Amino acid sequence: MKRRLIAAGVFGSAALTLGLIGVVEVRGDSRSPSAPIYGVQLPEGYRDWPLVAPAQEAAPLDELRVIVGNPIAMRAYRDNIHPFPDGSVLVKRAWKHEQSPDFEPASIPGAATTVQVMVKDSKRYASTGGWGYGRFIDGRPVDEAQHRTCHACHAARVSDRDYVFTRYAP
Ligand code: HEC
Fold first, then answer.
1. Atom of ligand 1 lying closest to residue 63 CA
2. Residue from 150, 151, 158, 167 to probe ligand 1 pocket by mutation (most atoms less than 8 Å from CB)
3. For residue 134, which atom of ligand 1 is closest to its CA?
4. Residue-wise over 80-105: b if at least 16 C-beta within 10 A, else e?
5. 150 lines ligand 1 (CB under 6 A)
6. 115 or 31, higher pLDDT
7. pLDDT tens digits for range 9-67
8. pLDDT recorded at residue 115
9. What CA–CA distance (Å, rounded) separates 136 from 47?
10. With a 6 A CB cut-off, is 164 part of the ligand 1 pocket?
11. How far is CA 93 from CA 31, 103, 116, in A?
12. 118 lines ligand 1 (CB under 6 A)
């Protein structure tokens, strides 16, 4: 009887340990590595988020871009809520600008270049206007030096719009 209880105990804690390892592994698989300074990660499911607006940058980068937002950010855009509430996330996706092979005047996205992220957390990121920044290439964050440039540019030009350039496309 006693032996059976001990066996159950050992089995139980082994199962618990395996369970915990399982949880950690699932998290590790589904979350991207975090960006330096801010600890921002690529948000899950951003490919399915609604459009805020398209954008384009001329040569030398020559990129097509779209800015998308999570539900909290989209509600802020729609209802004119300023500043963006905590939990707002904006993602800028970018591709090389290519000419369509099917119709000359049209453009298509070429290779994906970068994915950039802004996360609003007014306490955690108090020193950068409440925004944390992350820049990723092929799912991996770029170096710290590049992350040091993010807020400076946003703050220099659009501090009056909560450091966000993109307006909701009409
Ligand atoms: C030299 C200026 C500049 C720097 C540096 C910069 N950005 Fe931006 N960012 C822009 C502009 C301009 C836009 C508007 C969209 C566009 O034209 O691509 C933008 C848009 C964004 C957006 C969409 C929300 C918005 O504000 O419109 C995100 C997210 C973003 N940037 C993240 C970053 C991150 C992360 C970094 C640092 C790795 C960074 N940015 C560095 C100029 C800059």
1. 18
2. 150
3. 35
4. eeebbeeebbbbbbbbebeeeeeeee
5. yes
6. 115
7. 444 444 444 444 333 333 333 567 999 999 999 999 999 999 999 999 999 999 999 99
8. 98
9. 14
10. yes
11. 18, 24, 7
12. yes
- Structure tokens of 130? 């409440």
The Cβ of residue 126 has, within 10 Å, a number of other Cβ atoms equal to: 9
The answer, yes or no, to whether any atom of ligand 1 lies below 6 A from the CB of 92, is: yes
Percent of the chain past pLDDT 90, that is, above it, reads 81
Report whether 131 contacts 118 (CB < 8 A).
yes
Rg, the chain, Cα only: 22
Write down the mean pLDDT value for the chain: 87
Neighbours of 135 (CB within 10 A): 21
Query: What is the CA(105)–ligand 1 centre distance, in A?
Result: 27
CA–CA separation, 163 and 125 (whole Å): 13
CA 100 / ligand 1 centre spacing (Å) = 26
